[in-house]
């Protein structure tokens, strides 16, 4: 039986494979995408010290190290079911059925859509799809586009699209309705923009930056928005409908008040040939659900996450999780979680020779440190939410062991 | 095009109006919306629309989102051929 099967070759999966293989485990990674690297592949940004981080190169480094250690990586294979065995796990893939002693789910996150009239027209895509087109496949999603949804992800990807030579007309809010919730509220979006100030310090500080309260910020917000990298971010404009006969031709937009109400008589049509919808991210936990994990709903972590502890163990023996499936955070955090998971698994399989506990504790410290210094924070309150989640893990496992 | 005609479940082409009417008429859970309208039962397994269905139910006065996953996941979680399901190895 194989020691460890990892589902997902993103930074978490590759990180775990490396630390597990460094301790002598036999490791397989499965990923349904054609290339290893997961969401790292789409990333390209400038760090505060002026250095550029290219996700493709980062992924290549992790991949090479894993191969060097003898990790087997298989791409283009989907996992569609899991089953618990007496001693380990059975993994059903589109290629074959595999059995392993330990299993790690590192399946990342998926995007949350915001439905808008006209969103099924060709030329409308999720912001992540545009990122993959531009940065991974080197195909421009269009010539001129609008991004609907103001958040960390949309601002970062707008910049990447701009670097690909695509014109982004503006980033604006979705129309207020039953489903858009906070995403249509200028005040709430102002809060989330302020968490971005490190990405475009000058623009936000010129506008008021950290010293402005979100309430005031939303009210004083300039009608035509302010610009980040020359891309107008418009918190006081909203997209009402995507228009087009056979494909996207334009977006009907209107001005909104600080509370998100449409100002009548301000509607106009902006012509564009593609539209990106940026509704945010949620942990992709379907395999944890079919495996039978317990779940917790934690908005700070992006939605439903499998109950787990800081050692990346779930409540099922031999089943581990790492990366965005445990909560939406940056790629570096995912990678550090992977390292910790790989070591915990090595310990479970008695492969961690000396100083096992110290090594694992150091890896967990590294996760916390990386989290503290993360450039991108998808939601506020991640640390506290995690503390609570871990203590619930121990409470429920105590209860289970008393029965 | 009106707001109500907006498609929520793309796989099964179920509109906002159909889902809203179902929730209002039956005062029901997300699971019941799924069983009544097929929203969430398409080939993507609800990966695209489940969070919107949950949200609509919550917004329209139904049960709020809890630790329980309301639209349960069932294998296969990816579309696979009968051959693969039957154990056909490539
Ligand atoms: C669209 C998008 C953009 C992002 N942009 C940024 C950014 O700019 N900066 C940043 O720090 N973070 C960003 N993130 C967050 C990002 O998810 C993390 O940074 C990091 O990539 C998470 O690593 P991971 O290993 O947990 O998952 P991922 O990198 O997402 O890798 C998961 C892998 O699992 C595979 N997989 C999933 N399910 C299955 C299955 N059933 N069978 C087989 N394979 C499967 C997928 O193909 C994927 O390759 C973004 C996320 C998304 C979704
Ligand atoms: S979009 Fe509803 S099942 Fe796929």
Q: Which protein chains make the most extensive interface, counting residues with beta carbons within 8 Å of the other chain's beta carbons? A: A-B, 38 and 37 residues
Could you state the CATH homologous superfamily of the largest domain in chain A? Answer: FAD/NAD(P)-binding domain
What count of domains describes the coordinates of chain B?
1
The H-and-E topology of chain B, N to C, reads as EEHHHH
* Low confidence ranges of chain B: none
Count of helical stretches of chain B: 4
| Top-tier CATH class of the largest domain in chain A | Alpha Beta
> Which range does the strand content of chain A fall in?
25-35%
Helix count, DSSP H or I runs of 4 or more residues of chain A: 11
Q: What CATH architecture label of chain B applies? A: Orthogonal Bundle
**Major sheet of chain A: size, sense and barrel closure?**
8 strands, mixed
The proportion of residues forming helix of chain B, as a percent range, comes to 25-40%
Commentary on this structure:
The complex is a heterodimer of chains A (403) and B (90). By secondary structure, chain A is α/β, with parallel strands linked by helices. Chain A folds into two domains: 2-110 and 282-402, FAD/NAD(P)-binding domain, CATH 3.50.50; 113-279, 3-Layer(bba) Sandwich (FAD/NAD(P)-binding domain). Chain A has eleven helices and 21 strands. In chain A, the strands form five sheets. In chain A, strands 10, 11, 12, 13, 14, 15, 16 and 17 form an eight-stranded mixed β-sheet that branches. In chain A, a hairpin with a 2-residue loop joins strand 6 (79-85) and strand 7. In chain A, helix 1 (11-22) runs parallel beside helix 9 (331-348) and helix 3 (127-136) runs parallel beside helix 4 (152-163). The radius of gyration of chain A is 22 Å and the shape is elongated. Residues 204-211 of chain A have low confidence and may be disordered. Chain B has 90 residues and is mostly helical. Chain B has one domain: BFD-like [2Fe-2S]-binding domain (Arc Repressor Mutant, subunit A, Orthogonal Bundle). Chain B is built from four helices and two strands. Chain B has helices at 16-26, 30-37, 50-59, 82-85, and strands at residues 7-9, 14-15. In chain B, a hairpin with a 4-residue loop joins strand 1 (7-9) and strand 2 (14-15). In chain B, helix 1 packs across helix 2. Chain B starts with 6 loop residues before the first strand and ends in a 5-residue tail after the last helix. The site of FE2/S2 (inorganic) cluster (FES) has 12 residues of chain B, from loops. Flavin-adenine dinucleotide (FAD) binds at residues 7-13, 30-33, 38-40, 42-43, 78-79, 106-109, 111, 128, 131, 153, 156, 281, 284, 287, 323-324, 330-331, 334, 376 of chain A.
